[in-house]
């Protein structure tokens, strides 16, 4: 039962970058080098104080302490799943609601997230205040916010984001407002990363 939930979350985390790749498979598109607005989208925020997240890319479960995972998610267990870009960690509560976190190195950072939002007829793209000083946006290719799902992308460098996504059951206390939950988890992750830098 937890495998489908983990796969659903992992798929959502990866779809945020699905159109970022260049026509040559395996070659990521470069991130823009200026803070100029994208030609057809909103202005792209820059990361003023980049974080070194190399150690978390292959071990995203370490981006939250056990105490943080318990406090924000009510986590009783976690699992690390491989993906084509980097591993994804999913924490589950006792009802199998899940929250996943993964880093997306070499995928263009927030520029990709913004680019993918232009002309999208499904999903959502919604600005949000910085997460502990780092630019962020709520964005996903499918809009399931009314069903316990939400995803946030946080820029940790101008070329990399981490995403936090949720798949919550109706008995989760955060079911009706999953975006608040993923934002709190993202804030906790930034705190951990800063402390570990």
From TrEMBL:
InterPro entries attached to this UniProt entry: DUF3558 (IPR024520)
Location of region: Disordered: 21-49
Tagged with keyword Translocase: no
Keywords annotated in UniProt: Signal
One Pfam family of this chain: DUF3558
Region forming the signal peptide: 1-22
Protein name (record): DUF3558 domain-containing protein
